[in-house]
Design a protein that fits this description.
By secondary structure, the protein is of the alpha+beta class. The protein folds into two domains: about 45-175, Immunoglobulin-like, CATH 2.60.40; about 190-625, Alkaline phosphatase D (PhoD) (Purple Acid Phosphatase, chain A, domain 2, 4-Layer Sandwich). It has a nine-stranded mixed sheet. An eight-stranded mixed sheet has the order 18-19-20-21-23-22-24-29. A four-stranded antiparallel sheet has the order 7-6-9-10. Strand 3 (about 90) and strand 4 form a beta hairpin. Helix 3 packs across helix 6 (about 265-275), helix 5 runs parallel beside helix 7 (about 315-330) and helix 9 (about 390-405) packs parallel to helix 11. Residues about 1-15 have low confidence and may be disordered. The structure holds 2-acetamido-2-deoxy-beta-D-glucopyranose (10 copies). This is Alkaline phosphatase.
Amino acid sequence: MKGQSLLVLLFVSGVYANWAKNINYRSPSEHHPALGISIHKVVKRNDPTSPWDPATLNYTHGVASGDPYPDSVILWTRVGPSSDNDRSNVTVSGYAKLYDHDTEEYVSISKAPVCVEYAVATDEGCENVVDSGIVYTSSDIDYTVKVEAKGLQPFTTYYYQFAVCGSDNKSPLGRTKTTPNADDDVTKIGVAVYSCSNYPFGFFNAFGNPVRKDSVDYVIHLGDYIYEYANGEYGWGQSIGRVPLPDKQIYSLYDYRKRIATYRTDLDLVASHQQFPWIPVWDDHEVADNTYRDGSSELNNTEDSFLKDGGVSVDQRKMNAVRAYFEWMPIRQVEMDDNLRIWRSFSIGKLIDLVMLDTRQYDRSITDLYWNTDYMHDIYQDASRSLMGSRQENWFYNTLLHSAKRGATWRIIGSQIVFSRINLTSAYNADLPLNMDAWDGYQANRNRTLNLLYTHSIGNNIFLAGDSHASWVSDLVWLGEKPYNASTGRGSIGVEFAGSAVSSPCPFGANISLAAANNYSAILESTNEQLHWQDLYYRGYYELHIGKEELEARYFGLPTVVRRNGWEIPIANFSVRAGENRLLRPVGGGVVESGSLKFGNRVETNGTVDTEDGRWFVSQEDLAVL
Ligand SMILES: *[C@@H]1O[C@H](CO)[C@@H](O)[C@H](O)[C@H]1NC(C)=O
Ligand SMILES: *[C@@H]1O[C@H](CO)[C@@H](O)[C@H](O)[C@H]1NC(C)=O
Ligand SMILES: *[C@@H]1O[C@H](CO)[C@@H](O)[C@H](O)[C@H]1NC(C)=O
Ligand SMILES: *[C@@H]1O[C@H](CO)[C@@H](O)[C@H](O)[C@H]1NC(C)=O
Ligand SMILES: *[C@@H]1O[C@H](CO)[C@@H](O)[C@H](O)[C@H]1NC(C)=O
Ligand SMILES: *[C@@H]1O[C@H](CO)[C@@H](O)[C@H](O)[C@H]1NC(C)=O
Ligand SMILES: *[C@@H]1O[C@H](CO)[C@@H](O)[C@H](O)[C@H]1NC(C)=O
Ligand SMILES: *[C@@H]1O[C@H](CO)[C@@H](O)[C@H](O)[C@H]1NC(C)=O
Ligand SMILES: *[C@@H]1O[C@H](CO)[C@@H](O)[C@H](O)[C@H]1NC(C)=O
Ligand SMILES: *[C@@H]1O[C@H](CO)[C@@H](O)[C@H](O)[C@H]1NC(C)=O
């Protein structure tokens, strides 16, 4: 009898633990249950005697994994009775008000939860299972499932799958990979780097190509994973059959859920999530255009519009955006005792420390909101201005110091916006030379960063950036402070690789001609001494292949994104030797296929793919089954 009641107790506590195991119930902050969902209210709705009929449930958006550690990784899926998203509005009280699709009324009690099993195995047949569990999901969290697979081996490939409890209604099979232990010697890591995937501007072919090539270990997304606009405000979705839903500018929780869900129907995006673990951060458009601590270009906040819980103070629109992002992205919740933190770092063997910043939402001083551009030019040199806020800045500098101390070969810094000074005067013929929304608008923060690197002789720094819809490759220099020689690279302390958009248009004109784009690139390259390669024409991405002695960046340009295809052109390649802190000379091997290369040449392409020379990867038939 005693044994039996112990069993019952274990079972009960085990079941309770399963609820908390779906990280999304406590999203977006473990430290602020009031911002999450009240689990006991969800548990009360569970009736084990009448579970969902598995046949009525679908995996609506594939599977995903992310934020790999040496012994664990985040797994994601969505399984529910409808591909439409949930219309609950979660308030600070953690209580979800629900829309009942049957009665077409808002009700205060949502539907019963769905029971989901997951398994992680070393083989594709899922026979050698190394971790498994049972969790619940429900309408409160838009039927998303996010769990942490644990007890894994470092730098190992795993396969994972979800199933509706006790049924063979299974999800697609996902593949993922843990990172090496911090003190492991690793010889080679490959990552694909992305930004600015804009659904109504084109197909996400860029996500699919590394899947087809199986060319990398991990994926980094530097933000602008979605855009908040109505199609008519920014996009030509009508002409290519990609109008993002809801077809309006997004504000509510439902809107943000629906928008991410629409993007997640792109087959190449789904394939990338299914095959590679992602390490994403948001830029501004995951919330709204040009966001900063207190608002955005489209929103002037007042004290009243802020939700408050403990140290968190956030406007309702940002809260909706952040909640949907955490529900849908395979990321961890880092310690979040404050402003909805996403910045975090990864130690990848002795080879890499990857530092992912939030230069947008967290605690950024005021930015260019279009009506205040003149004011921005008055204040951009103020010492008090910060892109990150003091807490993140201190963490950033300590992380860099600690990384150098532990002897990690490379420090790779994922920044949303371009770090290097870019003087735009001659290309724009403008008298306001710098982009106030990039690091150029926050010079004190940039100087503090450079000062730390130079003062402590911290080398092998590789900055990554997105946001700009163009490619910029620079030696990392402190202009006006440290001498720099562009022909040798002497004086530089690293390299910046900034990449083009997956599909967002060229900033010098949508559908610009190759010749016109190259003309602008030549002007930009020649008037910025540390900028060695600039390209405006191609939408695309780049891969980093990181070794102990050398790091390579390979840039790929997509000939067209107005329809789904697997074509790409290898437009430029760069190397950095460990210890040299500059682009290897001759930069780009002396030749690129697009844009403008300092001291180098361009092989003229006409923007189309020569299908004879192996630069395309799959036939249209293969694409159909991906
Ligand atoms: C689930 O997906 C199948 C196949 O796509 C479809 O026929 C079915 O209607 C879907 N069920 C629901 C409840 O959406
Ligand atoms: C949720 O909020 C949106 C606008 O933010 C509103 O239109 C809708 O009626 C709200 N739904 C509920 C159930 O309160
Ligand atoms: C915000 O305030 C400024 C200055 O008063 C004004 O020019 C701008 O139009 C306002 N923006 C919005 C979205 O209300
Ligand atoms: C930008 O370049 C122009 C000349 O093209 C120069 O007059 C101006 O001083 C430069 N501005 C900065 C901030 O470097
Ligand atoms: C940043 O450093 C540059 C070069 O020394 C200097 O010209 C500029 O005034 C500095 N700005 C700030 C805000 O520290
Ligand atoms: C840069 O270095 C090269 C090679 O050492 C040298 O010839 C050139 O004079 C240097 N340029 C400047 C501006 O110092
Ligand atoms: C650019 O191309 C797209 C897709 O073909 C088209 O819908 C759009 O109208 C074009 N825009 C301009 C400004 O020419
Ligand atoms: C590019 O620049 C060249 C030389 O300045 C000029 O002759 C040509 O017309 C320009 N082409 C375009 C498309 O702007
Ligand atoms: C870049 O490297 C790839 C693979 O090594 C090669 O096929 C391509 O031609 C290179 N591109 C350029 C512009 O050098
Ligand atoms: C581009 O060049 C390829 C060969 O390199 C050629 O087959 C194709 O016809 C050209 N396309 C255009 C639009 O000129």
